[in-house]
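Researcher: Here's my situation. A collaborator sent me these components and asked whether they could plausibly form a single complex. I don't have experimental data yet, so a predicted model of the whole assembly would be a useful starting point for our discussion.
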Amino acid sequence: MSQFWSPIVHKLDPYVPGEQPQIEDLVKLNTNENPYPPSPKVTKAIVEAVDERLRLYPDPQSKALRQCIADYYQVDMEQVFVGNGSDEVLAHIFQGLFQHDLPILFPDISYSFYPVYCGLYQIEFQTVPLAADFSIQVSDYQQANGGIIFPNPNAPTGRLLSLSDIAELLGQNQTSVVVIDEAYIDFGGESAIALVNQYPNLLVTQTLSKSRSLAGMRLGYAIGHADLIAALVRVKDSFNSYPIDSLASVAGMAAFEDESYFQKTRQQVIDSRDAMMAKMTEMGFDIIPSAANFIFVSHPEYDAMALAQYLREQGVIVRHFNRDRIAQYLRITIGDKAQNQRLLSVLSTYR
Amino acid sequence: MSQFWSPIVHKLDPYVPGEQPQIEDLVKLNTNENPYPPSPKVTKAIVEAVDERLRLYPDPQSKALRQCIADYYQVDMEQVFVGNGSDEVLAHIFQGLFQHDLPILFPDISYSFYPVYCGLYQIEFQTVPLAADFSIQVSDYQQANGGIIFPNPNAPTGRLLSLSDIAELLGQNQTSVVVIDEAYIDFGGESAIALVNQYPNLLVTQTLSKSRSLAGMRLGYAIGHADLIAALVRVKDSFNSYPIDSLASVAGMAAFEDESYFQKTRQQVIDSRDAMMAKMTEMGFDIIPSAANFIFVSHPEYDAMALAQYLREQGVIVRHFNRDRIAQYLRITIGDKAQNQRLLSVLSTYR
């Protein structure tokens, strides 16, 4: 606390990311990173770009990267916004598209950064409870609002909403922006990008941190109607002219160009997830059906926080959210074969 | 314009950075980039970090980089904030430290991003005219204010304010935050970082884009009292957990570690600047004394915009600001020997 702070700073309740401990031999299943490295073509492309050109500013509009993403999803470059991770993209969305008189809506169990953005930009929000099975009921969103946002699949539950449900929501809600936050969509869902040319109020965000194994490079994007993208560009150009560094841009393009690596690794994650779900179900865990690279699990006989603590003592970190409705759940990232095996063996020793 | 935009978006007047044209053989003297490449140790360090670790999120607190910068300037890590370029650092400063009832103050001729940030965060500002010789008169800032900011050396003039003048200003102004934006300080000034332990309301920002030749990597920082840094951390953690990507962090540390390369290249820029000032003075140009890696020049017989156009036709880009008081000036970045020579030859053909 300081007299020098802007008044709003005192009231902020910042987001707390999963920890990034520097411990050897840790099985790190707490931040939904991809267990597989980025494509070798990505690392090669980065290395080839590390030279004297780094003295120059990057393209402030990131046109090459945006065109690459546009081509991949068959939209126009003017429909693509890129940011320094999808968290930055979301921040600009909250400021540029969600500051209206009515409160915005999001699920009571959802990405915990959303209320933080609301605090930063003084946006009113109202949470909409998930159903008892943690599903999103689109009819619950039929109320006046300044915007709607949720992850699909939802986080931290992993549960998917179908594209037809999303289309239904959009049909009912045409006067405010609907943001589908698809950080995990590549692990089992159909992207709502297919709907952006039908609904001018639909914005879809994605990231290269999960399915494209580039959490370390910080790249996210939004796709929607050019008018929505224009708002984000105006905010970005009033905040930071050059959010995407030269190497991140090169990495992103190379990642979209190596489709076979992307398909192979995401399928491996999906297969591992399904195997883990089967095995942990056998061990008595209740698991929310997951379309993500993580599973959200509880066990009728175990206290979730105590189990998380035990796992940690055994060198396996998972994420526990000490919050209403989900305090008895753990969110566990799908690792590679060895990591998953290690988790299963540690779990088998828990009594 | 769109019904979906937050009302504030309609009113934004975004910053326009100098262009980054993709033209061969262009002499690019318009965005104050360093003519020399980053240290070979920097490019080596980056290349060594390009591997499977990119699948992991970076340290959200960027502790290693902050400690490295803290050691370099002999302050504590808690006195160092890092951001995705100093533009992002400045944005967080405006939001976190400048949103008060009183208007903030900055010079009428200054970094043109400042009023843009004010628009984004709805901060009132009042500009304080520079003296006729474009110098900052600290006595002009003796008025009630919500904060004070200016670049030192100032941009786009290049004129330096002495450390004793800054100390005088701080002595007079202890109830609001004073930000000294030292993007260009390494090219000829004394840093006000020397004063941060004396004045709890002083914040100094710097960048690795200019004197450390890393514009392409996007790294800036602020140094000041831990309470001021805490405000920036709270804003950052409410905006984007991981603004600094893994490679940028490595690049920044390597840059601070290669002191001899830094000293050599900045001295080369200083020497070139002084030589350019001498030669252009001989050609009849009036030049504001510069402590930066650019010079701000006018000529009694030439129209600045016409000259800029001529230079461009000849393959040399400089920056012209079509604004009050400075419309007859050009800001010219100091290039390497060949670039400077090319500028001089083109100028010698102008009539």
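Model: Some features of this prediction you could bring to your collaborator: Residues 39 and 334 of chain A are 18 Å apart (CA to CA). The longest strand of chain A covers residues 202-207.
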